[in-house]
Amino acid sequence: MKTSNRRQLLLAALLLATGANTIANAKAPKELVIGTSAGPYADQVKLGIKPILEKQGYKVKLVEFNDYIQPNFALAEGSLDANIFQHVIYLTKFSTEHKLQLSELVKVPTAPIAIYSKKHKTLNDAKEGTTVALPNDPTNQARALVLLDQLGWIKLRDKYDPVRASEKDIATNTKKIKLIPLEAAQLPRSLQDTDYSFVNGNYALASGLKLKDALATEKISSNYANLVAVRTADKDKQFARDIAAAYRSHEFLEVTNKHFADYAKTDYQLALEAGGKPNSGK
Hints:
Distance between the termini: 68 Å
Helix content: 25-40%
Shape: globular
Low-confidence stretches: 9-27
Structural class: alpha/beta
Strand content: 15-25%
Mean pLDDT: 89
Number of strands: 12
């Protein structure tokens, strides 16, 4: 066989192989890796968001974390495409402190922080020396302190900042309670030893607690509604728009009503229920 003919055959084989690979790649599903804390936000993805995205050709992998630190580092370094576990105050503070380029994409239905007890059936049992566990991270601790102030167990100083309240802002410990700061993931277990414990919604549900069994529950502001975070550079990419659209859909509203009825709904879900058009915001 002449050299020129061999070259033509090799070139044809190469083009054929390249074309086959291109077709295979075109048919391969787009992969998304989403990180969440174990519990309700993982369940929201499994029951509501993943099925919607998979209908659009995505292959969705869910990675669950047991702390509030790793998910943002994993997102920033590219191991995740998105994460769902935090509110905007935590995201902003964490991103600023660690110089990470992360942004809010869309808010999600949120389980509130609440106070639980396995030793008492009412808050009226609180007396001098009562032990109360609360989150040790600044943003969630502020939420607990504000609720304690509303309950009358402590009095925060005048003109305190509800977003940044700390133990230093306690003007009077009215009930003379003993505050025990703990890592958020440890709070459900602390109920075995404390009189009362504040527990973040995701950890409460993951541990088997029910929102309706809480003795007091915060009224969630937009500052504390959980959200989907993405890398800032990815915020306008198609996959990010598709994730946001999945959360804003009627299909996900139906999943929320069926499986997450006690959660604080987002503004766009309330708009859908009112028959209006959900805004493109949070």
